[in-house]
Design goal:
The protein is an alpha+beta fold. It is built from eight helices and ten strands. It has helices at about 5-20, 30-40, 45-55, 85-90, 110-115, 155-160, 160-170, 190-195, and strands at about 60, 65-70, 75-80, 95-105, 125-135, 135-145, 175-185, 200-210, 215-225, 230. The strands form three sheets. It has a six-stranded antiparallel beta sheet, with helices on one face. Strand 8 and strand 9 (about 215-225) form a beta hairpin.
């Protein structure tokens, strides 16, 4: 467990148990006291983890009773969270495979450069991956890593988890993202790389990703087949 962010590791473990059905909708999580004993941490650390579960729509706090699991459907793509594909794959038991089709250091395309407001000629690591679900190519992910200190990353790492490597091995603190979601006409590239079944449109999620110190770190463009995912958010009245 990451000593620096124990509460976040606990949040991820509890999130996984909710999504895989270990804790079912309508059931109560163990008490703060039981969880603190289970994870060998303070109750304050447990409270921080529970706040994340609350804010991300996994639990509801009931006065005098504890934390009850909220009913959520599976195979939904979280819009508001910053969840890696591997984390989503693991949490929702997907039959998923990732294949790297591009991994090169290059000048940013003009549309990307304008989106992230960088100077002309700016360069980045350009990574493209196809996500296969049930043997079908349904997602095309395009990533541009904008930090000039990043070196070449092996394809085997990219086919496992880019974020696990960046956070666990390189120590980056990836914090938040600004996202834009559109439905667009498919391109010739989409037709060539994805199994679209004569679809004419595709869902595109563009994100500018920032580090904890607010530095712009990454631009992503994720192109999804229309019928394969539902995009969800969780709203709570303040």
């Amino acid at each position: 467990m990451n000593k620096k962010n124990k509460y976040y590791d606990i949040y991820l473990e509890l999130e996984t148990k909710i999504l895989d059905g270990s804790y079912r909708a309508g059931e109560f999580l163990p008490s703060e006291h039981e969880l603190s004993k289970q994870f060998e941490v303070s109750r304050e650390t447990i409270r921080k983890a529970l706040v994340l579960l609350l804010e991300n729509g996994f639990i509801q706090k009931l006065q005098g009773k504890g934390s009850v699991v909220i009913d959520r459907e599976r195979y939904a793509f979280p819009v508001s969270g910053l969840t890696s594909f591997k984390e989503l794959h693991k949490a929702q038991n997907m039959n998923a495979v990732t294949k790297v089709i591009k991994n090169e250091y290059k000048t940013l395309p003009e549309d990307v450069r304008h989106y992230v407001s960088l100077k002309k000629g700016a360069k980045a690591w350009h990574i493209e991956r196809i996500r296969y679900l049930g043997g079908e190519a349904v997602i095309l992910d395009k990533d541009f890593l904008l930090d000039t200190e990043i070196q070449a990353i092996d394809n085997s790492i990219l086919e496992d988890s880019l974020y696990s490597y960046l956070e666990g091995q390189l120590g980056y603190e990836i914090s938040y993202a600004q996202k834009e979601i559109t439905v667009e006409l498919v391109t010739d590239e989409d037709k060539m790389l994805l199994d679209l079944h004569h679809d004419t449109h595709i869902v595109v999620v563009r994100s500018a990703v920032f580090l904890k110190d607010t530095r712009l770190f990454q631009y992503t463009e994720s192109r999804h087949r229309l019928d394969r995912f539902r995009f969800i958010d969780f709203a709570r009245r303040r």
